[in-house]
Amino acid sequence: MTLFWLSTVALTLLACGIIIYPLLQKNTNKDDVLRDELNKAFYKDRLSELKEENDEGLVNNEGDLIADLKQSLLDDIPEQQAQQKTALSPWAVIVPSVLLTVVLSYALYAQFGASNDVEQWHQVNENLPELSKKLMGATAEPLSDDEMQDLILALRTRLHYNSNDATGWLLLGRLGLTERNVTLATDAMRKAYQLKPNDNDIKLGLAQALMMSQDEMDQSQARALLGNLIQQEQVDIRVFSLLAFDAFERQDFKAAIRYWRVMQQMLPPEDGRYEMLTRSIASAQKRLGETGVAEDSVTVTIEADANALTNPNAVLIVSAHDANGSPIPVAAARYPLGAFPRTLVIDDSNSMMEGQKLSSLKSFIIRARIDTDGNVATREGDWYGESDVTEQGEPVKLLINKQY
């Protein structure tokens, strides 16, 4: 702020200088001197003419005429002296002008310059670290609505001077999503995506912002981004949530149910979201004219030996086979390793063969394998477990404690 006020003083002094400079300049106009010279020349010429007229006998009172001529020349001198005596000093104009300029400048700024807003803006920028800590939950007190707006203002200011900060744009976009500000969220996420087009978090953020838009082209771009994200090896649960929401909004209730069931597979039953997903599935089933719980789903609870969990990069593969133990699965699903024990749900959406569904089996076997190299074709060194033969509708429990 000190620099700002110094700049206003400099500009005011410049304005005063523009006023003072012309007034202090000496008048280079020689009108008075030229007039005196002209009067003298006229006087001399007239004297010559009178002399010639006298020599020719045209005048009889040469002396009176010369006296009159001298008097007319002298009459001009007091007038010039009076003008000099009545001329104002330049400072008599400069001082009031400078005072008026200074007073008027600062009075107009006080009225129309929004100085209070500028002061608040600088204060908000100084509070950015503290606001960021509150946002991240480092303090017990959450952000108020006013503090949220201040944080957005401070972050936009920082990004104005550092526009290549993709993380900053991502954070600004998430704040826009929190505030339901579609324009802010979309613009910020697009900027972040331009800087880092291969970042999955930014892709997800942009998809979230575009899903809030009422424009069909934006929603189509969001689906394309989610389609790309769902093909990744590790899929964020929010990807399925957005896909389910979009499907439900488009009244594609079967797709919504499928995505919500996938989300349930990624959550333990004790997670609060699990029950919420159950209600969402029931709602979609009701919209389809269905009732009760779907009969094509199987709940599988899996425990694992500690020796099987030594590779954090391994993945869990769960498959359903007919009761005779056929190696070809009827349904299968792949999950991140995660923590154990855990509960998963597999259903007809996980079917592997055309024309054969999990719900068509009266009895089956569930197998679970911890795949260490990411190649389902190789099993050397992998840990696995297998359930007993289970009837349709019964829950399944198994332990991974064997190694190939």
TrEMBL record:
TPR repeat placement: 166-199
Record's protein name: C-type cytochrome biogenesis protein CcmI
UniProt entry keywords in alphabetical sequence: Cytochrome c-type biogenesis, Membrane, Repeat, TPR repeat, Transmembrane, Transmembrane helix
Gene Ontology cellular component terms for the protein in this record: cell envelope; plasma membrane
InterPro entries tied to this protein: C-type_cytochrome_biogenesis (IPR051263), Cyt_c_biogenesis_CcmI (IPR017560), Ig_CycH (IPR056412), TPR-like_helical_dom_sf (IPR011990), TPR_CcmH_CycH (IPR056413), TPR_rpt (IPR019734)
Domain of life: Bacteria
Gene: ccmI
Entry annotated with the keyword Repeat: yes
Record domain Cytochrome c-type biogenesis protein H Ig-like: where: 298-401
Record localization: Cell envelope
Domain annotation Cytochrome c-type biogenesis protein H TPR: ranges: 118-274
GO terms, biological process: cytochrome complex assembly
Transmembrane segments: 6-24, 88-109
